[in-house]
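FAQ

Q: What does a record look like?
A: Structure on top, sequence underneath. For example:
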């Protein structure tokens, strides 16, 4: 199975070792991709654990689980990454398509990361936009980028 993070790499060689805590993220982009994959595969504890300590106070595992249950993540596109430099916060800007309760959305976000106790952690997102998308027509290419028509893919 290809990894849900759209890296064109097998899941077991891409995000699975991170989610199973066999390895640690080496960069903010790698952490962001693994968090996206965790959302897609409903690994709620990993999502919670990869928040920064300050951000965890604003989250709950229950809320993450509710959101995950309602949402099917379809694809991810990395738009920009900033490298860590002295006195700067590394960021990853991305777009993701998802289906929440039968409505398709395109989310864009500039995510901020910090290193805590030697581990990359997600802080928060800025420039966050959620745009509702028109329902694809039966013969349109599916949003999940499978290459299939919508009627033979996510419409099922």
């Amino acid at each position: 199975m290809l990894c849900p993070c759209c890296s064109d790499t097998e899941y077991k060689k891409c995000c699975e070792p991170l989610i199973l805590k066999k390895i640690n993220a080496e960069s903010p982009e790698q952490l962001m991709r693994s968090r996206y994959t965790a959302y897609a595969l409903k690994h709620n504890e990993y999502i919670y654990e990869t928040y920064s300590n300050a951000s965890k106070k604003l989250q709950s595992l229950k809320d993450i689980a509710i959101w995950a249950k309602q949402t099917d993540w379809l694809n991810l596109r990395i738009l920009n990454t900033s490298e860590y430099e002295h006195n700067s916060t590394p960021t990853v800007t991305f777009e993701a398509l998802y289906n929440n309760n039968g409505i398709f959305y395109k989310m864009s976000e500039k995510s901020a990361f910090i290193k805590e106790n030697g581990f990359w952690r997600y802080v928060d997102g800025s420039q966050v936009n959620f745009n509702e998308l028109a329902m694809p027509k039966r013969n349109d290419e599916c949003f999940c980028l499978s290459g299939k028509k919508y009627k033979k893919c996510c419409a099922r």
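Q: Is there anything notable about this one?
A: The helical segments are 16-19, 28-41, 44-49, 53-56, 61-70.
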